[in-house]
Automatic annotation (TrEMBL):
GO cellular component, one term: plasma membrane
GO function terms (MF aspect): pentosyltransferase activity
InterPro entries in the cross-refs: LipidA_mod_glycosyltrf_83
Topology in the lipid bilayer: Multi-pass membrane protein
Membrane-traversing stretches: 12-33, 93-113, 122-141, 147-163, 222-241, 268-288, 300-321, 327-348, 360-379, 391-413, 420-440
The keyword Transferase appears for this protein: yes
Keyword Lipoprotein: no
Protein name per UniProt: Glycosyltransferase RgtA/B/C/D-like domain-containing protein
């Protein structure tokens, strides 16, 4: 017989746990939020939000002046709200706040869901801790694209509302109506992705566990949830279709074919999915070993349902030819709760552990010891600026990670304690985000050629690039460059024989992949236009990647 209070800390009050979870989310998702360079999806989201902030349409967002129909607008709206509130359109740390808050809300929504599913509430809290500090969650929660984190954030809360409804002994139209609203918001965040990747597997696992009776009893409320979800999630697509039917049909065709033609990977691409739990990989792998884990975990949580949830999600994701690592996000919640259950069992103490349990704990502690020793050594080898032996930051990292290594080794030479392993996992994660995440820009640029000149530097040094109309000559600029240009950059098609007259008077700024010469323009223009080279910018991390040129076009009769 297992004591239900064994291994449970004295601070098991929900309010204390909520505070600790909030502090952990702060360190995981908010510290050094500005460190990482802007990514492709982030640039698209931020450019579209910037154009809304500049006076564009909220219902018909644009990206570089063209309709942005490929992605639902909710994450872009949230960034635009932040821009309006802060009047800041350039600080990556500020613009990533919606994603960081979304990740935190996802963690707290999952904690609520886990409390509804698990018979032991401390296990639910451990699952939320594992989810917050998982590698993939850290990556997605600190990325400003927003589409991934918000679609699953709303869906996790929707699942919790559904469970509350199913568990109700009476009619629960309120809970199911709330679930419908949240599902609709998820659709407005990334279309049908979360209903397919999370809602469908969860409902299947719920029925597998034996939820048929509750599902039948609340069938009218479930129908009500579907109606509400269709209204909320379908309102914007229907409005869009009423305004731009042909464009919507083309985008829908392109997006659907992308699932089978772009980023195609083999069926075994996702087999390494436990690795994305990061520091909790040992517990995650152990929790997936049915014969080993089920007898240990089923007293704390519905093991069969969670195992089915993980398995069905993985199968559904594998069926889609297009595969990316971040698409594994819907696997993390059930896997995190299973890993939390494994931790909960090990926290019962040595009296409940077998030799295999103790070996796994020793292996896990050994990995933390290697990480604790390896970080200071790696900083010395890599020679990142500001992290040499003569800098305080280096010694701070050495103290933290060296302390983790000493604690882990001390735990190895005695009876391994799961509480020490839990603390080491949290400390490693917090140490990386708070002490090492600031080195990420230097790490990304460690092999850059010297003397690179990015577009953002050129724009900051030439005020006319922000004041005069700007154009890209004959080819579309990469979206990251458009973000760096701090404004839309439409394409101007022109050749030595013909060209479209500009709709704005000179002077204008022109970006071009080649050095502008008078021969680049029709002969009828050359006598009226003066080309004044301003600058150039490099387009990659190597000079060999190429250079674009910046010039100012003026009328010959304009004053110098």
């Amino acid at each position: 017989m297992i004591d239900s209070d064994a291994g449970r800390p004295r601070w098991s009050s929900p309010w204390v746990q909520a505070l600790l979870l909030a502090v952990l989310c702060y360190f995981c998702f908010f510290i050094n939020l500005e460190a990482q360079e802007i990514g492709l999806m982030e640039a698209r989201n931020f450019v579209a939000a910037r154009e809304i902030h500049a006076g564009g349409s909220w219902l018909l967002p644009t990206m570089n002046g063209e309709l942005r129909l490929a992605k639902p607008p909710l994450p872009t709206w949230l960034v635009a709200v932040v821009m309006n509130l802060t009047s800041n359109t350039t600080d990556l740390g500020v613009l990533r706040l919606p994603s960081a808050f979304g990740a935190s809300l996802l963690v707290f929504g999952f904690w609520w869901l886990a409390r509804l599913l698990a018979s032991d509430r401390f296990t639910a809290w451990l699952g939320a801790v594992v989810l917050a500090t998982s590698l993939l969650m850290l990556t997605v929660g600190r990325d400003g694209n927003g589409w991934d984190v918000y679609c699953y954030c709303f869906m996790v809360w929707a699942l919790a509302a559904l469970v509350k409804g199913w568990q109700s002994p009476v009619r629960a139209f309120g809970w199911f109506g709330l679930a419908g609203v949240l599902i609709g918001l998820s659709v407005l965040s990334k279309g049908p992705v979360a209903p397919y990747g999370m809602l469908l597997p969860f409902c299947a696992s719920w029925l597998w566990r034996g939820g048929w009776a509750a599902a039948k009893r609340h069938l009218p409320e479930a129908a009500w949830a579907v109606v509400v979800a269709l209204i909320v999630g379908g309102a914007w697509p229907l409005f869009l279709y009423s305004k731009h039917a042909s464009e919507v049909a083309a985008v829908a065709h392109n997006e659907s074919t992308a699932w089978v033609e772009r980023h195609v990977q083999p069926v075994w691409y996702y087999w390494s999915f436990p690795v994305f739990t990061g520091v909790w990989v040992v517990a995650a792998v152990a929790a997936l070993a049915w014969r080993f884990a089920r007898p240990r975990l089923q007293r704390f949580l519905p093991y069969t349902q969670l195992f089915a949830w993980v398995s069905i999600t993985l199968v559904l994701l594998t069926l889609i030819p297009e595969k990316k690592e971040r698409y594994l996000l819907p696997v993390l919640p059930p896997l995190a709760l299973l890993a939390g259950g494994m931790l909960r069992f090990w926290l019962l103490g040595p009296n409940h552990q077998t030799r295999l349990d103790r070996r796994l704990l020793r292996l896990w502690g050994g990995l933390f010891a290697v990480v604790g020793v390896g970080v200071p050594v790696a900083l010395q080898v890599i020679h990142l600026p500001g992290y040499h032996a003569q800098f305080l930051m280096y010694w701070g990292c050495t103290a933290v990670f060296g302390g983790i290594a000493i604690w882990a080794v001390w735990n190895l030479v005695r009876q391994p304690q799961a509480s020490v392993i839990l603390a080491c996992g949290i400390l490693v994660t917090v140490g990386f985000t708070s002490l090492l995440m600031g080195t990420y820009p230097q790490w990304q640029r460690r092999r850059d050629d010297p003397g690179l000149r990015p577009l953002r530097t050129v724009v900051s040094q030439h005020p006319e690039c922000q004041k005069l109309p700007v154009f890209s000559l004959n080819e579309e600029m990469h979206i990251k460059w458009i973000w760096a240009a701090q404004r839309p950059v439409p394409v101007w098609h022109v050749s030595p024989t013909e060209g479209n007259l500009l709709s704005v008077p000179l002077p204008v700024i022109v970006y071009s992949s080649h050095r502008l010469q008078r021969e680049s323009f029709p002969a009828s223009w050359r006598k009226n236009v003066k080309i004044a080279p301003l600058d150039s910018f490099t387009i990659g991390h190597k000079v060999s990647d190429g250079t674009w040129h910046v010039a100012k076009l003026e009328s010959l009769d304009s004053p110098d």
